[in-house]
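Re-run with default settings, no changes from the original entry. Doing this only to confirm the output is reproducible before filing.
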Amino acid sequence: MDNPLRQINRFYKKSEALAERAKEFVLRKQINDFYKIFGGHIFFQTLSSGVELDLFTQLSRRKKMNRQEIRDCLGIEEKPAKILLSGLTTLKLIRKKGDSYSNSSLANLLLNSDSEKNIIPYIRFENHIIYRPLARFSDSISANTNLGLEEFKGDFPTVYQRLANNPELEQIFQDSMEKLSRQVNPYLPAYLNLSKTKFLLDVGGGNGENIIQLARQYPNLQAAVFESPTVCETARENIRENKLESRLKAIEGNCFTDDFPEQTDAFLFSHFFTIWSEEKNKELLKKCYKTLPNQGKVAIFNMMQKDNEKGPLSSAMGSPYFLTLATGEGMIYPWKDYKSWIKETGFSKIQTYKLPRDHGLIIATK
């Protein structure tokens, strides 16, 4: 018969083992989530490599391929093919059945260049413009400025100015912004009523995609983008291609130092206030208020952070970019910040609309 002390020790050891297993089970999801954070830089480059090699498009067109067919199609050797395909399969971006690989539904939608809803330009923006500078995030936190900007040549204080000296990277940036605009801006006409607006100024309006969409919705609308010279050239070309020169134009200027056109009775800031500091955003609102007639509008359209500052994920992803690279000033602000600035400026009416993909629209009326 066992010694009672040995029985007790075995009982406790078994209990400890069961407790550890229960703890491991409870923590499993947290551990998996942590792996995605810990290995995020590697997982993103796995995704980006699949995009750059055009793997997802080829899989979409052929439905499925074995590894040798993929190697022949992409022009890569056996071991790199194994590593890439294993990574993408583990990340559930592609599926493996027997010896064949195929896209996941998500990859067919977002990573296939034949899909209208693909986000390939934005992945290239993340890879070629954001990725390396974000290694300076902790330094930028300590310095409270965009030290990641040192990755790009030049003396200008923002990434947008420095990209103007690098046509290839500026094109990658503009392509990503156009893709973002095309995917989220269709919500604008549904909530932004411009039926009584005579002249809309889209400040930082990029290649003109915003005003082109709005001009189609409102056939009497006159509008312009207010942008840097190199971006204005792209906007004018886009406007010409859409045969809207009679109603749309691009105005070169600096929104902080140059006057806004006097005829403006509505302003649009799309993905723009996130770039700048609280002080500069309030400065812009005051400048708009001074320019606008009574019943004039300011529309602010971009991703929003929850007022409790607990997400969404897009805010955790976007804010480090604005601090470390873009300007060293901005972030994804909570709704309450915009409302506070608008009230402080003196606007008489505020309307807010929560939109898909973590976006929001705030309309302030004078």
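The mean pLDDT is 92. The longest strand covers residues 297-303.
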